[in-house]
Specification:
single chain, alpha/beta, five-stranded mixed beta sheet, 9 helices, binds zinc ion
């Protein structure tokens, strides 16, 4: 039995951890600033892995990275957060350097896999994981398998079209659920309404955050409340579509925006009930928050590597 190395590549930091067989507690852990827009990110990553390399044998390296990527070839396609990595063959470079197999998938899929194996989704076979922060990402477990798809690009739940005439999404297309319900989309709506003359305790500012809007909503600000109602409404439409496709037994919500609680989830649940094709989808459906927090990507990378070597 050998050790597993898990890697979580984020915009601000790279985390690397070493796990003994059957354990989810790392025996070594390293955080390095990713400086994602500066050259040399691959070398910073490789050095971080070297710095935790254990004395015993290593079976595999698992990696969670922002996408889009191809998990089957281990190639980062063109991730906007890391401009240096265009069609970058990450797993083959790491396998060559460290002489062990390496496996890669996108961070939202990995968080969903981790929540299923070790977190809020334990014991379920049909899981839809949705992370809402600067974007909206998804991970889907269906019949006890991680859904990856033909191109390895399945479960991009944030880029489901809800209104083809809707706002421009982070990806450049119009009306995806991310363009209504992500943190920046909620802030953009508030800013537009302020510019149109809506009264509010909030002021138009470049870095207006969903957390600031949530604070205003809790103090009764009507515009802030309506911004979350709108985000929840469109999220409910999207999730009604996910129910029709995947018929999950549990919906798990991660990401910073999910932390606002009822402000988003009350209108979300009302919208979900309204737009679900059949009420039977909702019978015994668990709707819950993610359990693993910041460790989800790392633990998903661990689960992926173990899945591949056993
Ligand atoms: Zn999109």
């Amino acid at each position: 039995m050998s050790h597993t190395i898990a890697v979580d590549i984020g915009g601000t930091q790279i985390r690397v951890a070493v796990y003994e067989p059957d354990s989810v507690k790392p025996i070594a852990h390293q955080r390095t600033r990713s400086l994602a827009t500066e050259p040399g990110i691959y070398n910073r990553l490789a050095q971080a892995i070297e710095s935790v390399w254990p004395k015993g044998t290593v079976g595999a390296i698992g990696i969670a990275s922002p996408g889009p990527l191809d998990p089957y070839t281990g190639t980062i396609l063109a991730t906007p957060n890391i401009p240096e990595w265009q069609n970058f063959p990450l797993t083959s470079k790491l396998s060559e350097r460290f002489s062990v197999p390496a496996y890669l998938d996108n961070d939202a899929n990995m968080a969903g896999l981790a929540e299923w194996q070790f977190g809020a989704g334990k014991g379920h076979q049909d899981v839809v994981y949705i992370t809402i922060s600067t974007g909206i990402g998804g991970g889907v477990i269906t019949n006890g398998c991680l859904l990856q798809g033909f191109h390895g690009m399945g479960a991009e739940l944030g880029h489901m079209t809800i209104d083809p005439d809707g706002p421009v999404c982070g990806c450049g297309h119009r009306g995806h659920v991310e363009s209504f319900s992500s943190g920046p989309s909620i802030a953009r709506f508030v800013t537009e309404q302020l510019k149109a003359g809506q009264k509010s305790s909030l002021h138009a500012q470049p870095n207006l955050s969903a957390a600031q809007i949530a604070d205003a909503a809790r103090e009764g600000d009507a515009l802030a409340i309506s911004a979350f109602e709108r985000a929840g409404h469109y999220l409910g439409i999207a999730v009604a579509n996910y129910l029709a496709i995947f018929d999950p037994s549990i919906l798990i919500f991660g990401g910073g925006v999910s932390q606002v609680g009822d402000l988003l989830f009350k209108p979300f649940e009302a919208s979900l009930r309204k737009h679900t094709f059949h009420p039977h989808y909702l019978d015994n459906l668990v709707i819950t928050k993610a359990a693993l927090g910041d460790d989800a990507g790392l633990l998903g990378a661990l689960a992926l590597a173990r899945m591949k070597v056993t």
